[in-house]
Amino acid sequence: MNSVDPPNGNGGGLARFLTLADTAEILHISASQAYALVRSGELPAIKIGGHGHWRIERAILEAFIEAKYEEARRLSLWHQSEWASAPEYSFDSGARDHSRTSST
Q1: Residue ranges per structural domain of the chain
Q2: What is the pLDDT of residues 67-79, one digit of tens each?
Q3: I want to staple 22 with a disulfide (CB 3.0 to 4.6 A). Which of 16, 18, 47, 71 is the partner?
Q4: Burial 51-67 (b: 16+ CB within 10 A, else e)
């Protein structure tokens, strides 16, 4: 990972922004998967420089990870609930009972 001291001189700290490669390494995914997360908007990022290199703010990545944990927790609770096996009802007009039609 390319962690460098930020230019503000606080020394010993981690960089505020991460490259796609850094992000991929942290998440243990490929760089193309990290790029797909950014391109889809699921992982907010900014383009920096003339060549438009993507950068992800470390705090944003941490928030993304926390949101994924919360999503997994809620999904797990949903699957454990009594409503997980409830049938879904359709309110689609095409699903109406057409056995009673008026004849004119």
Answers
A1: 1-81
A2: 999 999 998 888 7
A3: 18
A4: eeebbbebebbeebeee
3-state secondary structure of 100: coil
Give the span between the Cα atoms of 93 and 87, in whole angstroms: 18
Q: CA dist 71 to 21, 57, 65, 68, 80, Å?
A: 25, 21, 10, 5, 14
How far is the C-alpha of 31 from the C-alpha of 26, rounded, in Å? 11
- How close are the terminal C-alpha atoms of the chain, in Å? 77
83 close to 89: Cβ distance less than 8 angstroms: no
CA 23/CA 93 separation, integer angstroms: 47
CATH code of the domain made up of 1-81:
1.10.1660.10
pLDDT for 18 equals 97
The per-residue pLDDT for 10 is 47
Residue at token pair 């290199």: 53
